[in-house]
Amino acid sequence: MRVALVTENFLPKLDGVTRTLAMLLEYLKRHGHQAVVIGPEGSPRRYAGARVFGARGIPLPFYPELRFCLPEPVLETRVCLFHPDVIHVVEPVILGAAGITWGGRLGVPVVSSYHTNLAAYCSYFNLGMFMEPMWLYRRYLHNQCARTLCPSPSTRQELTYRGFTQVEVWSRGVDTQLFSPERRSLAWRRHICGYEDERRSIVLYVGRLSHEKNLMALVSAYTAVETSSTHLVVVGDGPARADLEHALAGHNATFTGYLSGEALAEAYASADVFAFPSVTETFGQVVLEAMASHLPVVAFDSEGIRDQVRDGQTGFLAPFGDRRGFTRALSILVDAPELRQSIGAEAYALAIRRRWETSMDSLLDVYRRVTERPRSRSRAA
C-alpha cells in the first residue's frame, strides 16, 4: 500500500494529532507499506522512512502554532510522482482541501480524518459568528471523501447529526510500554513537592495551555480543594500560561512546560489524580495515557471524554459545564487514597486493552476497502 498523507499539523508540534500520525507512519513502515507526507514547513524532512515535504503557511491569528498551509503546485507534483493508492487528508482546511482535489485529478480515493472541533473553538476566541460557517465548510470537504474517520462514537454521532456522511470510528491506542504505573518515581514527587511533602496528593493536568481547554475550571476546582497536602502540576505550554500562572500564584502549583517521552510518562505515573476540564475534545489522548498510568480521571461529561471514562468506575464525570460538580469530584479523589487506588486500577485495566496496533489495523482495512472501489480513471503508470 502506498499512502500519501496530507496534513496541516505535524511534528515537531506535540499533540494528539501529531502523535497519532507518528504512530501511523511507524506502523506503515513496520508492515512494509510506503508513505509520503505533505505537511507544514518546519517539519522533519523524514519520519519513519517517509519523505516529508513542507508547505509554506500563515499562522492562525488565534492559534499561532497552527498554520493555513498553502497548496503550491510543486506539492501536487510530489504526490503525483509518488503514485499513491490512497490519499489521507488529515483535518482538511486549505492544504487538505487541495489534497481532496489532487485525489480527484489522479483518480485516487481520498480518506479524511476529523480530529478537532474547530467550530467549538470559535466560541472561545470571540468568533461565534463563524461557528455555523465552519461546520458548513468542513462538512462540504469531508463529504467529498470516500470515508470520514473520527476517533470516538460520540463524535461520530455529532458529525452524523451535522450531516456528515460515510463516517466511521478510527479508534486510538496507547503505548503501554511507555505509559505505565511502573514509572512511578519517589524522586519525581520529592522534586515537585519537597522531601518532607512527598505524600501530598498530586493533581495533574497535561495538555495545551489555551483558552479552549477550559482551564479556569481547573483553577477554580483546585483552589477550592487545595490544602497543605495537595499540589497541582500543569504539564504543557501555550498562550494561556501567563494567565494561569497569575491565577495560581501563591498556590501549591508547578508548571513544567512541555514534556514528552519518558519524562511525560514519569509525570503521569507519579501523580495521584488526573484532572481534565476540556469540553472541546473529540477524543482526549491524554486521558487514555493517564488511565494507562493507573490514574483516576476527573472530567466533564463531554464529547470524546465520555467514551473513555466510565463515571464512578474509571473516574468521575461532572455534568457538562457544572464546575461545582467538577470540584466535588476532585475533592472526593484528593481526600480518598484507597478510592484513588481502586478507580485507578479499573482505569488501567480498561486502558491497556486499547492497542495502537489494533487501531492501525482498522485504518489499513479502511484504506483497502476504499481502494477496492472502481476509480474514475486509472492511476498514472
Protein architecture, described:
By secondary structure, this protein is an alpha/beta fold. It has 2 domains: 2-173 and 356-371, Rossmann fold; 181-351, Glycogen Phosphorylase B (Rossmann fold), CATH 3.40.50.2000. The protein is 40% helix and 20% strand. The chain has helices at 16-30, 73-82, 95-106, 118-124, 131-142, 153-161, 186-193, 215-225, 241-247, 261-270, 285-292, 323-334, 337-351, 356-371, and strands at residues 2-7, 34-40, 46-47, 50-55, 57-60, 63-69, 86-90, 110-113, 147-150, 167-169, 201-206, 230-235, 253-257, 273-276, 297-300, 315-318. The strands form 3 sheets. The chain has an 8-stranded mixed β-sheet. Helix 9 (241-247) links the parallel strand 12 and strand 13. The chain is globular, with a radius of gyration of 21 Å. The two termini are 15 Å apart.
CATH topology of the largest domain: Rossmann fold
Principal-axes geometry comes out as globular
Beta content: 15-25%
Secondary structure tally: strands: 16
Whole-angstrom Rg: 21 Å
The CA-CA distance between the termini, in Å, is: 15 Å
Give the count of structural domains: 2
CATH homologous superfamily heading of the largest domain: Glycogen Phosphorylase B
Structural class: alpha/beta
The overall pLDDT, averaged over residues, is 94
CATH architecture call of the largest domain: 3-Layer(aba) Sandwich
